[in-house]
Structures are given as structure tokens and as C-alpha cells.
Write a structure and sequence with these properties.
By secondary structure, this protein is of the alpha+beta class. The chain contains six helices and 16 strands. The strands form four sheets. Strands 1-2-3-4-14-6-16-5 form an eight-stranded mixed beta sheet, covered by helices on one side. A three-stranded antiparallel beta sheet has the order 13-7-15. The chain binds fe (ii) ion (FE2). The site of fe (ii) ion has 4 residues, from loops.
């Protein structure tokens, strides 16, 4: 797709202000002390505790996701996701098939195996720090999952939601961090927002660094750098590790801008670290969050086994 028109060339990096040198206090909510999540309204069918952090998040307790859910419950989960961006369901016990069935209630699920014939199965797939012999390994810390990213933005239609379930964990660590790019966008100066309007960002699998199946099958795609939420219409930065350049502007300039925006969006006041417990299932909205796995445990010693699937999304606009 051709690059959309944009406001004009960016000034040289030395001439313009950085996009986010500080963590704006209003984005942090000017809260004193730690966030204290509270239980939401009396009339709710679900027990929702929110926010979990300055970066959003909610916890929904007391649900058994292994069984089909009433339509009203699914609607409340969707509403919680729209409002809080990510939702934690503690204490689950799910087979890979049951996880798939839960995700399918939130929308069409991408079958494991991508487009490869004969590889598609209606189950959550396994993501773990295990090598071909089944031994824990730290080599996975080099992978894209350990850098800030949104899931599969190198598709024309990237996933709306990701569903991740903790099966086996190290004694401590193995966190997943989230960064709220809606709040990060809101906190940008008006002049920066104006500069970003209409820009499109080019994504490629592994940032185009690693040849292989995906690199040959998936040419780069471009999406709005500021995408609007498909339900609320609220704008959020859309970027991350797979973003390679900004369409229509000088590559060095575009890469520098992407780096500055990423630095801005991943400041502590926009982020949340999820410390997993076995049985946690987390659903997150890829349209307005970045995430990364954290190698804060002995990866050569302990196993970290997660089950994952993604719910399909629309073309970003
Ligand atoms: Fe991911």
C-alpha cells in the first residue's frame, strides 16, 4: 500500500525536540504511593479488580474458563478489555483445546501453524524455553519475544487479542511486561501528535533481520503509526521491534523517531510487569499495548512453559 500523505519532512533530529524526555506526571496519574485496585460496581456479574497499574489492567476472579461462558459474561470480558487493555484470570486449569475454545468466544482464533497446510490444529500452541532435547535454554532470550513488540504486526490483519496461559514457571521471574501505547500517545506534546498524523510505519518479521520461512513468505507491510482502537476509536502508537522504518521519510530519520517513541512509550509510568502464577491466563489487546518477555530467571535451569493463541483482528486504521 502506498504511503499516506504526511505533514511534510521532519526537521533534522538536532533541530527538533525529543518526543518524550520525561514521564509526564499526568500520565502517571500523580498518584501517591502504589496503585490500589478496587472492586468494580455492585451490579456487575463479574468480580473485576482494576486498575492493576498505571498502565491499566484488570483481574477477573471466580470464572472457570474451561467451560462455555454465557453471552453476558463474554460481553463483560470484552468490555473489561476495552476499558483496561489487559485482563488477568487467575487460578485456571485448561487443556490446550479448552484454551482455544475460550479464545474462540472472544473472536475468530488464528489456528496454530499459520497458513501452512496440514499444520493447523484447533489448540493453543506451546511456547517454552526448551531446546530440541527438551532442556531449558537461555538462547530464547535472543528472540523477538524478549524485545518490546505487538504480536504479528507484519500481517496485513494483525491479531486483535493474545491469550497466554501459564503452565509451568520458574520459582521466581519469567515476567511479561506491558506498555500502554494509548496512554503514551495521549501524553505526547500536541506538536508531536501533529507530526505523527498520517505517518505509516513499515513492519517486517524479525525486523527483516533473519532470513527464513516468514521472511520469504511475508513481504513488509505498512500500518498507521497512530492507529485507532476498533471499538473506542481512541488513538495509540503502533510500533515495536518489528517496525523497520517509516514510509516516505528518510530511513535514518524514521528509525530515530521510532526509537524515541519506543523509549517514550516504555517508560515506567506506562508499563506493568505481570508476575505470573501457575494457572494465570492473561488476555491483552494488541492494538494499544506493547509487551515483552523478561529473562529475569535462570533460563538454563528452569522451565517456563506457556500456552498461547491469538484472536484475529481488523486491518489497522
Ligand atoms: Fe508476543
Amino acid at each position: 500500500m502506498a504511503a499516506a500523505p504526511h505533514p511534510g519532512p521532519l526537521p533534522a533530529s538536532g533541530e527538533r525536540e525529543r518526543v518524550g524526555d520525561t514521564c509526564p506526571r499526568r500520565a502517571c496519574g500523580e498518584r501517591e504511593g502504589p496503585i490500589a485496585p478496587r472492586w468494580e460496581g455492585e451490579g456487575q456479574r463479574l468480580a473485576i479488580r482494576a486498575p492493576l497499574s498505571a498502565a491499566g489492567g484488570a483481574e477477573i476472579a471466580g470464572l472457570d474458563l474451561s467451560r462455555p461462558l454465557p453471552a453476558e459474561t463474554v460481553a463483560e470480558i470484552r468490555a473489561a478489555l476495552t476499558e483496561h487493555q489487559f485482563v488477568v484470570f487467575p487460578g485456571q486449569s485448561l487443556s490446550r483445546e479448552q484454551q482455544y475454545a475460550f479464545a474462540a468466544q472472544l473472536g475468530p482464533v488464528e489456528a496454530h501453524g499459520g497458513g501452512r497446510p496440514g499444520k493447523r490444529r484447533d489448540v493453543a500452541h506451546v511456547t517454552a524455553n526448551l531446546d530440541a532435547d527438551g532442556n531449558p535454554s537461555d538462547r530464547f532470550a535472543q528472540g523477538a519475544n524478549y524485545r518490546w513488540h505487538t504480536d504479528k504486526p507484519y500481517y496485513r490483519t494483525p491479531p486483535l487479542l493474545t491469550v497466554l496461559y501459564a503452565v509451568e514457571l520458574p520459582p521466581a521471574g519469567g515476567d511479561t511486561e506491558f506498555a500502554n501505547t494509548r496512554l503514551a500517545y495521549e501524553a505526547l506534546p500536541a506538536a508531536t501528535k501533529q507530526r505523527l498524523a498520517g505517518l505509516r510505519v513499515v513492519f517486517q518479521w524479525e525486523g527483516g533481520r533473519r532470513p527464513g520461512y516468514y521472511a520469504s513468505e511475508l513481504p513488509p507491510v505498512d500500518h498507521p503509526l497512530v492507529r485507532t482502537h476498533p471499538v473506542t476509536g481512541r488513538p495509540a502508537l503502533y510500533l515495536g521491534n518489528h517496525a523497520v522504518r517509516i514510509a516516505g521519510i528518510d530511513e535514518i530519520e524514521g528509525t530515530a523517531l521510532l526509537g524515541e517513541l519506543l523509549d517514550h512509550a516504555t517508560q515506567p509510568c506506562f508499563t506493568y510487569a505481570h508476575r505470573w502464577r501457575v494457572g494465570d491466563l492473561v488476555v491483552w489487546d494488541n492494538t494499544s499495548l506493547l509487551h515483552r518477555a523478561v529473562a529475569n530467571y535462570e533460563m538454563n535451569r528452569y522451565r517456563r512453559i506457556m500456552h498461547r493463541n491469538v484472536v484475529k483482528g481488523p486491518v489497522p486504521v
